[in-house]
């Protein structure tokens, strides 16, 4: 079984700033993942050519099951509002996605509120006070050849401390699903705090950000120690360098 997490940066290339469907397909196909968590995913966004990035990733993997979960309606960094159930799917949306080659028994979506204050963030324009976006945890109970597996993916806040609160909320939500349990995602914190605040086991220790010369691990594949013996042994870890995104994907292969 191969698990992967990938912050797509809405499919944009750092080399020329362009979003190109073939580049995204190639980057995702190279992962050859049975279960893939995606972050910074666009749907119907002009900046990414109105592509459905979730469907594109599923096509690249030959995966019949996929789901997108919006965090906001509109475009991050421009005009947006928190996603709501009545949002028109034709409007630009931004969020996360889960793609899998396995059947899904059931889905679970958990809202993770945004930080209530603006926070300083270093951008190409300098240090700016930015409004935090709401976040979401998308989880599924998968029917794998070796039994049920619960997998969630999320993209946590850049606000220190608030992302810890969101992480704990996500872990509680996942523990309502059957073991074994996996969390995939860009948690916006390094591996030490992640382990300290969750008690979950990291299946891979590797720098993933920034993609040209990674110095820190923001992207994680975590296993709940309650029931993780059923997952098997890690036999390979990869952090390929695709032509899209400012993050490297993190790919973990298990002998299960």
Automatic annotation (TrEMBL):
Entries under Gene3D superfamilies matching the protein: Endonuclease/exonuclease/phosphatase
Annotated keywords: Endonuclease, Hydrolase, Nuclease
Domain Endonuclease/exonuclease/phosphatase stretches: 4-247
A GO MF label: endonuclease activity
SUPFAM superfamilies: DNase I-like (SSF56219)
Pfam families per the UniProt record, alphabetical: Exo_endo_phos
Stated name of the protein: Endonuclease
């Amino acid at each position: 079984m191969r698990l992967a997490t990938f912050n797509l940066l809405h499919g944009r290339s750092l080399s020329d700033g362009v979003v190109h469907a073939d580049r995204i397909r190639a980057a995702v196909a190279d992962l050859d993942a049975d279960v893939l968590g995606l972050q910074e995913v666009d749907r119907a966004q002009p900046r990414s050519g109105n592509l459905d990035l979730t469907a594109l990733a599923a096509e690249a993997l030959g995966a019949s099951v996929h789901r997108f979960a919006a965090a906001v309606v509109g475009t991050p960094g421009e005009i947006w509002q928190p996603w709501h159930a009545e949002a028109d799917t034709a409007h630009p949306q931004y969020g996360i996605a889960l793609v899998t080659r396995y059947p899904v028994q059931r889905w679970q979506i958990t809202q993770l509120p945004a930080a209530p204050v603006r926070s300083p963030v270093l951008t190409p324009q300098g240090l700016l006070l930015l409004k935090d976006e709401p976040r979401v945890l998308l989880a599924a109970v998968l029917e794998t050849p070796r039994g049920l597996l619960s997998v969630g993916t999320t993209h946590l806040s850049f606000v220190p401390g608030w992302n810890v609160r969101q992480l704990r909320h996500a872990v509680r939500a996942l523990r309502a699903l059957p073991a074994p349990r996996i969390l995939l995602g860009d948690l916006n914190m390094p591996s030490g705090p992640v382990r300290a605040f969750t008690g979950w086991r990291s299946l891979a220790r590797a720098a993933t950000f920034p993609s040209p010369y990674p110095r820190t691990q923001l992207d994680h594949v975590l296993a709940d120690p309650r029931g993780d013996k059923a997952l098997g042994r890690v036999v390979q870890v990869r952090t390929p360098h695709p032509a899209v995104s400012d993050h490297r994907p993190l790919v973990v292969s298990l002998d299960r």
